[in-house]
Amino acid sequence: MSGLWKTRIGLEVHVRLASRSKLFCACPNLFETNPNVHICPVCTGQPGSLPALGRGAVELALRAAVLFDFDVAMLSRFDRKHYFYPDLPKGYQVTQQEVPLGRDGQLEIEVDGRRVRIPLSRIHIEEDAGRSVHSEEHTRIDFNRAGAPLVEIVTDPVMETAQEVGAFLRRLREELRYAGVSDGDMDKGSMRTDVNISVYDSSRLGRAEVDAEGPRVEIKNLNSIRAAQDAVDFEVARQIQEAQETIRRGAQLHSITVQTRRWVASSEGLPGHSKLMRTKASQLDYRFLEDPDLLPLALLATDLDAARAMLPEGPLAMRDRWRCEYDLSAHDAEVLSSSPQLAAYFEATARALQAPVRGESPPARQSYKAAANWIINDLASLSSGFDKVAPFQVAALVRLVESAYISHKSGRLLLSALVARHVDQPGHDGDLLEMAQALDLELVNDSALLDEYCYAAMARREDAIQSWQAGRLQAADALLGEAMMLSRGKAAPDKLRARLLALLEVHDT
After folding, report:
1. What's the confidence (pLDDT) of residue 358?
2. Whether pLDDT at 429 is above 60
3. Which of 8, 11, 97, 235 is within CB 3.0–4.6 Å of 157 for a Cys-Cys bond?
4. 2, 135 in Cβ contact below 8 A?
């Protein structure tokens, strides 16, 4: 009776374009300001006002279309989508319903170490509505967002899990940020998603006499990846339970009402859940018609070439290159490419490591891995560390540690000192050398001094020498610890160990 339930999930993602002005007027495309200050007769729908399509928004939309390999329509058109809502001042939304900007795109995502291509059915340009701010007494309307430029990216319903949904949204946001199309900040409304979910009994699917698939349920306006994943998990479980109860009653699954729901996040001990907004027996009649005030959007081949020329190396390609060129782990490459700014910082550090230094050999692959570790584990933990420590200084720090001039522990102290001092003027390794000397951080590398520490340790620990001579080689660690203590932690560990083992061999003979 339980069935083999599976899920179909499709997404409709609204992306706010990072143009300077709104879609059809010259008002600034800004949202986080005082309400109703970036408005004009066009974006508030005043009688007699006429729209003028902004070039910047079109260029960004086209960049997104070529970024995701859409088949771009060289001639697309704008339509009016009519519905009433208080924050929609014109009584309709301008969109591209019949002839969108692009169809049949794709985005590659990573799930459990495997790459999956998600087909994208369409991308189209549209304007945003305003914002309703609710309180117990009033609903206030802010039209700053009205007329803001959006692209809507619609996937095919091929995803099956919340994990895939999260991976898709993260990858989409990464690509949009790298390409400069949008900042992708979901908490600011720059990227919002509607999730369409249906469940079906795969053990019954295909049998002509059986209705095996439930209706599609849409969850509107999810503004975080966590909310999207939680909503999918909850809604899949709710739909399966509802479908099982329907079958148990002897009814058909198509009798379940098509619903639009909203997500209520967990709060005050209550778990997150979806809540019914409305039911509908058929699609809403938006009375679409071609916008009489806007000409069709005609593109040239040179427009596509210009859009492709603006595309940088994407994060996925960058991770593959780093893993091959710098031998980074998959985790480190993913963390370092999580934002364009952090990726650029690591690239600058790698270039600084490659810069020729007199008397030093070219950096080995472990140097790049060490730089990644310093950036991810140490610099990121320091407040404003990336603003106060230049990439060339991280490269210099890697060299100092690898040359055993300072220890890794001392390197952390030096990094903190750099942040505190905020050395932002051009410099070289000498800056770090001077700071290391001033802080008394340099290690002892002199062979004669290292031998003194080793002889003193051997004199104190005859028992450890006897154990080592008896074949218990780990006894050398006790001697090494004693010698390091005598040096007050200043001896270069690798060189100290090498000298100690050499002296033990002589002592043994």
Report:
1. 62
2. no
3. 8
4. no
